[in-house]
């Protein structure tokens, strides 16, 4: 995936995050927030945006109540991208 595509996906997931927060959904975005990255940080490298996407995706899926499924999806994605060190 190109960096521009990753930034677009990061933008979409950040909007979902804001929506969930505005609706009062219980979600733990602390790992994502600890990265201090947003879709607007276009100067950050591709890997940073990939990590942010995985962390956002994991928290979003957990927030909507599919924690077990998200864990498998995230672990598989992290392994495929060589980012297994991010696993909780």
Name its key features:
88 residues, mainly alpha, Substrate Binding Domain Of Dnak, Chain:A, Domain 2, globular
Specify the number of helices.
Answer: 4
C-alpha-based Rg, rounded: 12 Å
Portion of residues within helices = 55-70%
Order of helices and strands: HHHH
Helix and strand arrangement:
Layout (H helix, E strand, L loop, with lengths): L2 H20 L7 H5 L11 H18 L3 H14 L8
Explain what this protein looks like in three dimensions:
- With 88 residues, this protein is mainly α.
- The protein has one domain (3-86): Uncharacterised protein family UPF0058 (Substrate Binding Domain Of Dnak, Chain:A, Domain 2, Up-down Bundle), CATH 1.20.1270.
- The chain has four helices and no strands.
- Helix 1 (3-22) packs parallel to helix 3.
- The longest helix has 20 residues, at 3-22.
- The relative contact order is 0.16.
- The mean pLDDT is 84.
- This is Metal-binding protein.
- Pfam families: UPF0058.
- InterPro entries: UPF0058, UPF0058_sf.
Summarize the structure.
With 88 residues, this protein is an all-alpha fold. It has helices at 3-22, 30-34, 46-63, 67-80. It has one domain (3-86): Substrate Binding Domain Of Dnak, Chain:A, Domain 2 (Up-down Bundle), CATH 1.20.1270.110.
């Amino acid at each position: 995936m190109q960096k521009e595509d990753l930034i677009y996906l990061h933008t979409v997931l950040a909007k979902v995050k804001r929506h969930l927060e505005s609706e009062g959904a219980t979600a733990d975005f602390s790992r994502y927030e600890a990265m201090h990255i947003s879709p607007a940080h276009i100067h950050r490298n591709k890997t940073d945006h990939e990590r942010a996407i995985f962390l956002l995706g994991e928290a979003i899926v957990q927030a909507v109540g599919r924690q077990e499924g998200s864990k498998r999806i995230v672990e598989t994605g992290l392994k495929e991208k060589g980012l297994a060190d991010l696993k909780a």
